[in-house]
Amino acid sequence: MKITNMLVQYLENPLGIETKSPLLSYTLESEDQNQFQTAYCILVSSTKELLHRNIGDLWNSGKVSHENNYAIPYGGAYLSSRQELFWKVKVWDKNDLASEWSDVASWEMGLLEQKDWKAHWIGQGDTADCNKSAAPQVAKDFRVSDVKNVVKARAYVSGLGLFQASMNGVQLDDTLFNPGESDYSKTVYYVTYDITQQLKNGTNAFGILIGNGQYVNFRVNPTMMLDETTEAPEHRYQKNDSRYVRQGLYGEKKVIAQIEVTYEDGRVEIVAATDDAWQLTDSPITFNNWYGGEDYDARAEIRGWNEPFADRTGWQQAIIMEQPLGSLKGREFIPARIIEKLPAASVTRLDNGNLLVDMGINIAGFPEIVLPGMTEADRGTVIEMYPAEILNDEKTSVDQSSCTQSWSQKYHCSIKNSYTVKGDGDERWHPSFCYQGFRYVEVSGFKWEATVDHFNCCILRVANEKTGMFETSNPVLNQIDVITNRAIESNMFFSFTDCPQIEKIGWLETTHLMFRSMSAGYDIRSWIPKIAQDMMDAQTNETDIVNGDTEGLGYMPAIAPEYFRIDGLNRDPNWGGACILTPWEYYQIYGDCSLLQKAYPTMNKYIMYLETQTQNGLLAGYAQMGDWGQLHENTPITLVENCAYYYLLSTMAKIAALTGHSGDVMNFAAKAEKVKEQFHLHAECYQPESRIYGNGSQASYGCVLFSGIILKENNEMAVNRLVEAVQIRDYHLSSGEVGLKQVFASLGKYGKNDIVYKMVMNDTQPSYKFFVDNHLTTLPEYWNYEELWMGMVRSRNHAMMGHVKEWLTSYVLGIRMAEPGYRKIIIEPALTQTVEKVKGCVFSQYGLINAEYCRNGEEIVLEVKIPIGATASIGLPNVGSEELTTNCSEYITQKIGQTYWIHSIGSGTYTFSLK
Question: What residue segments make up the domains of the chain, in order of their start?
């Protein structure tokens, strides 16, 4: 067997790891069928030389009999700050034959102790005369006199809100929005850079731009004005509808950097560390706001400011700042990048003289402007760019209403990026410290002849690898998958955001409701633990209560990090319960229970908190969102919140058993049974005479079936009534984001995929096909997206209604998990009489799971690829044929109803054919 894709904490050769017992993973490949690992041996060494001699001086696991090739915790010597580790692995196959040793991989520890930091946080200070909307730049020269004896050099950098680091005039990498958002009152991330190759003998220079981000935004002016009576010029949009400000979440911009070199003799020297000897001045970024946009004056560029021997005359002395409340922690998740850069689809000149740039698709990112051959005559020209998702009714200008909750009209605020021309040859610019959700850009001040070559569309997100694929013979289904993926990607930032324009914050319900839709397309193994950490940090503790939080000990907000607490939309078990269900989904999909272990105290505290909100064992009047986004259903909130409460309790019983908290298992199970009992005595939830759940809506039956709160004797009846509820609405979608997930999952589970197909492919609104037919390129926030909601135009780029992705993968493609981590797989394409061809793949810890189904006349062919370590059961339509043709040598067949099952399929590539 061949060993590939060696990862530490699900990252490739990471630097600055904080976890002292990191998880090691790898992938196995073999041409043989029915292959699996029976044992592994991992060696971890302090040098490559020792490892080449098969000496694991830090850890030699020995031959460990185990099938897992993932989430193996390092079990060797104690790890210290800055330590480099090199590792390799070999495995034994089903015949106990050993593989060759893998290639060498590595990881490096970060600064694990506070005392390791000799640098200080520095900035402009809390002064009234500095431009708090601008982005300052700080720099310092430093010397390394013996560079030939340096074996490695590292820069440890953090900045609040955001930073961009460079050395000797070159930006250190292509990542954006470093160090990554967090609850700054608890955790502040830092980034470790390998600067060994950039280091020069003699004088070097380090430079940092400091952006605002969420940390500084809240109190930055000029921003949106909430006072309608204020007569003011145009202000920049800033989300600001929260009355709760958590101590430590906001502050003045600041940065910390520590640059170290390690010599051949093992000596570590700190050659530069931020202090008041660093110098600071304004950068060309004269305004930056996470929501409102960015202004850049290229005339203010200081050539060579971050290079050695730069003239920094007139620069200010940096001021040592108060350190943030949160502890510095090494980043262990994938950063954000420009994923793709596309030219504009079209550029037209409007009657008002402005340009209308159409990017062709709705995206999360920013526009890039390209200006060739600028001259002194062009110097000072101000080009303003207004991004938007929609145009006004006359198609004569952009309309930013859907990007600003309509506050753009009410409060004269806008989202704008602007660039002032330097007039010095070819110029190119995009923002550094903000992004937007948009399709169109209206451009003013562009006085030259314009073409699509002048404008690019930069698509951004956290760079989680795209691993899934889905394609059918039906172009509408394909496009539904495309726009759903684009909506997911547009919200894949340091939280799973609500939308990339209005809010940009991590509403928590989607992290578990959309988990399987996300994981069907992307490797999110390093991203989800970061989001879980945000939840753990956001939970109300004793200190928060002392500082004025009245929600109660153990409360989990609806948003994390909790940059905003929106009154009336901050309490709901489907939102707060993400602290339980997101780690649970992580275990289900990836088979890794480490996140359950880490989050268990948070989960337990949340359950204890929910108990304080109950009456007679049920939540009543607690939840504020219910089935958010439903259309004319009015599913009772009491039903939705108690289905969630029951599901949380029954899930906690399983988690307690998995994590070794055996004493809690019966406690959670008993509480779940009490909720079920009281649920069926509550009139809003169940009417025993008619056996109707809730108000008989789609979501009413979807929620009770999915959660398991339903009485067993009512199960078949509930499935039939769910189908009837869909038929009553002529197969239209009507559930909100909670109910929709559970309606699709329940209909799929009970074999009603023809019903889901009719809902998805309905010609009239609301349906996904309607979105495609009306040329939407992402998913809107609400089904009735063309209507006003509470007097506001709403977002066109939300992922919360994207549960169709899970259904497309699980039932149309037919790849489903039968055991956590896909150790056992089901492959059963469901719409074999409707969709002629479907192919795709799903990522698992064992590797990609591939399936390709084709119906050609009377012949049905299914090709599958099962990764090493997993086994599968294959389901094909039972056409009455006994003529199964396959290249699989070991299998068991079984006919159950309408399905011809082929069981016990091990790893390998197979073709199954029925006539």
Answer: 2-108, 117-333, 339-462, 469-813, 820-914
